[in-house]
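User: Structure please.
Assistant: Input sequence and predicted structure:
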Amino acid sequence: MPYNNTAIPPPDEVTGQAALPLARVKRIIHLDEDVANCSTNAAFVVTVATEMFVQYLAEQGHNVVKSERKPRRNIQYKDLANAVSRIDNLEFLADVIPRTIPYKQYKEKKSKEAKEASNGDAIENGQTTLNKDKPQSTVNGAPGSNDEHEAGDGQEEMELEIRSSRTNGSRVSGGQANGKHTEDISMG
């Protein structure tokens, strides 16, 4: 028996009834904690607006199929995803109806991101990694030396002196004077 794939025409006359079940729409509305009560008329308006939105989304998906000149009568997920990505009015659905990509492309993209993250290029100059490695600085896009930067940086030298004084048995005392935290370091 052949399939009946003739399109169901939308009703031209207003019947006063919604195609979506009103009781379910009310139940969904009551799931929202901000809504205490919802009248039947308000639920009916929400139902009709939802039907109109679904019809608009389906029409836009069908227009995408027609613009691609494909002889299909059925709308597929990829048609809706293309409609969402192309039409500005539907841009808010980009997270809900994303474009699909093949697994092979996804895997390649993730491996490329992982490779970039493991590269030293991901670390900016002046930053260190967890194992205290510093990236090689670049001067005008070419590898350069860190000598100029390190020569003017007295902070590192001070930290090294503090660490070495602590390991050599020098006295480091901390206290409070006038409500402010102070630290005395005596180099011996």
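Residues 145-152 have pLDDT under 50 and may be disordered.
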